Every structure is written in C-alpha cells, then in structure tokens.
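Researcher: Go.
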Amino acid sequence: MPLGDLCAITASPSSDLFATLTVSAVGTPVVTPADITSAQRISTETLRRLPDPPAGVERYRLRPGDLVLVRLGSVGKVALLDADAGDWVYHSSCIRIRPDMERVNPVYLAAYLAHPPVVDQLLSHVQVGTVPVLTAGSLKSLPVVLPAPDVQQIMARALTEVGVQMDIQQRILARLDSVKQGLLAHLLGDELSGGSASRPQTLSLDRRAPRTRRTNRMS
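Model: Structure:
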C-alpha cells in the first residue's frame, strides 16, 4: 500500500523560516537531521531553537506519533516523536509524516522506513544533484508492507524494547567517551598548548646505593 494512503505527508518548510536558529535555551525547538539518532529517536541535547518563531511556522508543528524523515543530504534518517514533542517544529531538511494510527502503528512504521531495503527504495526516488533531495510527492508513492494490526502491535513492543536498549548503550558510550577525553586532558595537561605549568609529573624510581658484594664470614 502506498505510504501516502496511510499517512499525511507534509513537505518541508522554507529555509528562510530558520534564519534566526540558535543554540539559545529559549524558544521553539527545531528538529534537524543532526538530532536524529540511530535508534529513531530525537536527541534533545542537540536541539536548537527559534527565539521568535516567524509567521507561517505553525503549519510545521510536530506532535507525539509524528515521524520526521530527512529529505536532504542524509536521505532516509527517520525519527519517531514521543511525548516531549509538544511545540516542536521540523527543519527545512526534513519531511513530516503523520500516520493514520487506526491503520498503521507509528513505531512499526518508523522501523520499517529505517529498514535498509526500504531506504534503498527511498534512495531510488532521490533527485540526483550536488545534494541528494527527496520530495514529498515521491515519498507518497513508497510501497509499505502492512501486517495485520495485532502483528504490528507485537512488532512495535519488541522494537520499542530494542530502541530503549540502544538508547542506554549510546548514553553509556557517550559517558565513556567523556571519561576518555577527561583522562587525556588531565594526563597531557598543557602539553598540547605549549605550557608547562600543568605538565604531568613523571614517576621516578628511588635511587638506591648499589649493593656491595657480601663477604662470606666463614672465609
């Protein structure tokens, strides 16, 4: 069944709407391709914001259950929006997919769209140029394998658990990377910047007097 029959697909907004995009902690969060993780989730730590959302951005609001798919550059990356996506919008590099939840499970659909053979089909519709581009029109014609609703539900539960475990492992890896960088910074001190104040002190072995040959008292 074509994806366009199962979902409302909204094209990307104009890039002009995001001229004031910033790392400020105040404003409307904007989902960009860089925020999408390998577990089909949004990394809230990297979200940038629009301090004063311009007119016209309301049409591109996101809500829980929506999917955001990258259409420009890294075509095929997809994320499922959870309960945190209250007033978020999506970037001009993305397309919004809003599933009809009575017909297709969003968790199943997100995993389906990220499945490598399906990504290959997406890429076959990409307009080749300096930067690969996927249009909303070509996305609507993408065929979707649609199991029965109860089967989708079973698959969704299993896929959700896998996604949770992936998120846990990614957080562990991020912490370990921070520990590694912290250790390097501590051990190297100012070596890389040419300073000497914080250079690590090398351990020196205690120098002891050389042993003298013991004489045999019996001799």
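Model: The first helix runs from residue 3 to 6.
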